[in-house]
Fold this sequence. Notes:
By secondary structure, the protein is α/β, with parallel strands linked by helices.
Amino acid sequence: xxxxxxxxxxxxxxxxxxxxxxxxxxxFLAGCVRPTPTPEPVTIAFAYLDIGVGEAYxxxxxxxxxxxxxxxxxxxxxxxxxxxxxxxDKADAFVTTQFAMSGLQKENxxxxxxxxxxxxxxxxADDLYPGTxxxxxxxxxxxAIPASADLxxxxxNQDLFDQxxxxxxxxxxxxxxxxxxxxxxxDPDANVFGYAPRYGIFxxxxxxxxxxxxxxxxxxxxxxxTFDDPRTIExxxxxxxxxFRYNVIPTPEQAQTLFGQGGxxxxxxxxxxxxWSGMLSEQGGSYELSPxxxxxxxxxxxxxxxxxxxxxxxxxxxxxxxxxxxxCWKWIAFLSQQIPARQAPVRKSHVVSAEYRQHAGEGxxxxxxxxxxxxxxLSPRLAEFEGIEGTxxxxxxxxxxxxxxxAEAMTQAQRESRYK
Length: 420
């Protein structure tokens, strides 16, 4: 038989034999590969302060479970302060402010997250705003990862601004702009004031730092008080003029006499205040018994020597008693990639994203972009300076009662400080 006929007959046979051999080999090799074991199902408990964020956490927990079907997140909403009335040890992970960190760390109630941050290449620490991750660091360890920032801002009554034809505040407004607006809004006959501070000593503190003053040598790593800093006294001199020279801020006595026990809050709700300080998360009066009835707007805190907005930073922690710390890390790392429900994002990519503009609105997104440039990151260590809030509060009370000038009161406060 000619050779080409043998080729014609044998070629298909050889191909079939090769195919069968290959299939047998693949089957053999497949039998040698160990199948990936299905992870054991685990459940982790997560605690959070329930102020208008429950729906967001429920949505995130569902999306997380779809990504990691073996991990179930059991949500534990908390009422009141983030640590009061709740045993954090019953939660595997939780979110709370930076000021809780020192106590939790000293009591060995939280895990060092440094190893997780270093090993998880998808975490992208470089996308966080400068200083936000370091805020939760101590003794070379990382005790939490940043969750969100609540910024002090200025709210304003658009109805009053329109009635008096006062231009709305802009993102780059200054102390002079602020003063001009407050004076233009003031109407003694109608008991309308230009501005209402709502956070006690924290309001003048914002203006102190806007002017370049300080009450601690270093907010990031405080070691001593600096109450008598010259620029601190200058800032308070200016602030006091808002009350007693220009009368654009009601004294506590005026607020109570004119607006009853509700004081500043009642004045705002009655449309008797043009501008007031507030936190970003309380838009529309969400912390009050009833929402604001007026048309309102928002602006960053005014600037002077610098931009400065007092900031409360929330962080995600893992309990030292967590039975499944790896699962907890997956959860909080996942949360770190989500845009916060009410507060400002701490990831730079989030703040400039179209998703955040759609979520928060163009105006709020622009305000956050401006405000994040001047955030005052308050070290968790400030909670360890016992009595300092009282010392400053007494000095401020003496100033507001006109028993002492800012220079006299702050010099006395520094003299009495245990940390000078």
